[in-house]
Design goal:
Blueprint: E1 6-9, H1 13-25, E2 29-33, E3 44-47, H2 49-57, H3 62-68, E4 69-71, E5 74-78, E6 84-89, E7 101-104, H4 105-120, E8 125-127, E9 130-136, E10 141-146, E11 152-156, E12 158-161, H5 168-173, E13 181-194, E14 202-207, E15 211-217, E16 227-236, E17 250-251, E18 265-266, E19 269-270, H6 271-276, E20 282-288, E21 296-297, E22 300-302, H7 305-308, H8 317-335, H9 339-361, H10 367-376, H11 383-386, H12 389-403, H13 407-412
Parallel strand pairs: 1-2, 1-12, 2-8, 5-14, 12-22
Antiparallel strand pairs: 3-7, 4-7, 5-6, 9-10, 10-11, 13-16, 13-20, 14-15, 15-16, 17-20, 18-19, 21-22
Helix pairs in contact: 1-4, 1-8, 2-8, 3-4, 8-9
Length: 430
């Protein structure tokens, strides 16, 4: 009997985590990626403890993650006056069995890519080949590719679409899907070498739900005490303003937006100086997609941003892509490389993660800023008079449960994929 095989479209974080998972359980795969060469693009992202657990089970541990970023010690929201709305420990400091990491997305992406090449071989990722469509029969699925050599095709047992928010596979699966959703906010991103604030490894959200900064380090301090500080400046545009005049994602002069954050000056942080300390800044809209009813069409499944592109308000887009990959792997162990495995994966994740997409659209954990604004206009002397500590803690606990990293539940949960689990020979095809 021929051993089953999987095709993965997209060599982003989700696609590479899937390739490593399939290799771990003994299921061959090929990854097709549209770009000619992978490069370390992007700035900071967070990897929540549930995703770090899965990465460690894949052999991507601190020796790798410490080269990409550093463990997070604190998560904090700060009002416009500079006073805390809420602060709590994170990762190991909070009692998780696994850390939360703040990493440079590009470095982390390249670390996953190197792991795939080392374990699966140099031909496992085929760059310059874009999956444009699929067709399927009872026996398999065929992908249609654009390549430098012209149109090509390949056939496998299953196809995983992990090509991001513009996924052609999702578009074919859901031809009537609405256009990409934009809620009116623009983001400017950059990194600056500066002294870390607060604990030295704090994730800080500062401002209001319509006008805020997100700041956290993505490297340990060097001998000079300076670290690479990731920052995201966000502003909800007024009626009549439109980001479509400028495009999806572009490098912009810092002077074109820094004035919006001139009031963000405190004795412990000068936001305009932090922004001006960056060598480059990039502008892009805060976008997501409306949830769909299913991520699966027969032998084809969506994963990562192709399945559930979400606002970054919960800092869990990359983490969920890793969880997708591991959950898919567990379903393949149970059902083999069959449509039944994809159906089981869809049943487990599509519904709850679709709710998470909408929750993040509604500000996710930053929803505390909305509550403060509604109750006092964002100005307060004592935050406990506005929103008591117990209410703040309950709000965030509810979000962590929805996002899959409630501390007690995660610490007590068995591994998604048991150690040394391999695909059984009797669970091969359907």
């Amino acid at each position: 009997m021929t051993h089953p095989r999987v095709i993965i479209a997209g060599a982003g974080i989700g696609g590479l985590a899937t390739a490593l998972t399939l290799h771990q359980i003994g299921l061959p795969c090929t990854v097709y990626e549209s770009v000619r060469a992978l490069k370390p693009l992007g700035v900071g992202i967070n990897l929540q403890p549930n995703a770090v657990r899965e990465l460690m089970d894949l052999g991507i541990g601190p020796e790798v993650l410490d080269q990409c970023g550093l463990p997070v010690r604190e998560w904090a929201l700060v009002g416009l006056s500079g006073a805390d709305i809420h602060a709590e420990p994170r990762g190991l400091t909070a009692g998780y069995h696994w850390p939360q990491y703040a990493v440079h997305r590009g470095r982390f992406h390249m670390a996953l890519y190197q792991a795939v090449i080392d374990r699966l071989g140099p031909g496992a990722v085929q760059c310059g080949r874009r999956v444009t469509a699929y067709s399927q029969t009872a026996q398999g699925v065929t992908v249609h590719l654009e390549s430098p050599d012209g149109p090509q095709s390949d056939t496998a047992d299953l196809l995983i679409g992990a090509e991001g928010i513009h996924s052609p596979i999702r578009a074919q699966m859901h031809p009537d899907q609405p256009p990409i959703h934009w809620g009116g906010a623009l983001m400017w991103r950059g990194t600056t070498r500066a002294k870390p604030i607060r604990t030295g490894s704090s994730f800080v959200g500062l401002g209001t739900h319509r006008h805020r900064m997100v700041i956290y380090p993505i490297s340990a301090p060097d001998a000079d005490g300076l670290a690479e500080i990731n920052w995201i400046a966000e502003r909800t545009l007024d009626e009549g303003e439109d980001w479509t005049e400028t495009g999806w994602f572009r490098e912009v002069p810092i002077d074109s937006f820094v004035h919006h954050f001139d009031p963000f000056r405190y004795d412990w942080l000068d936001v305009p100086a932090l922004i001006r300390g960056a060598t480059r800044a990039f502008e892009n809209p805060m976008i997501d997609r409306d949830p769909v009813s299913t991520w699966v069409d027969g032998r084809v499944a969506l994963l990562g941003d192709a399945a559930h592109a979400m606002y970054p308000t919960g800092s869990n887009g990359a983490s969920q892509a890793v969880i997708d990959a591991r959950t898919l792997g567990a379903c393949l162990l149970d059902h083999g490389a069959t449509p039944a495995a994809l159906t089981a994966y869809d049943d487990l994740l599509c519904g709850p993660v679709s709710k998470l997409v909408l929750r993040n659209r509604g500000a996710g954990p930053f929803g505390l800023l909305n509550i403060v604004d509604d109750r006092c206009g964002g100005v307060f002397d004592n935050i406990d008079d506005v929103i008591p500590a117990a209410e703040r803690e309950a709000f965030l606990a509810d979000y962590k449960a929805a996002a899959g990293f409630a501390i007690e539940t995660l610490n007590a949960a068995p591994p998604i994929i048991p150690k040394n689990a391999r695909l059984s020979s009797h669970l091969t095809r359907e």
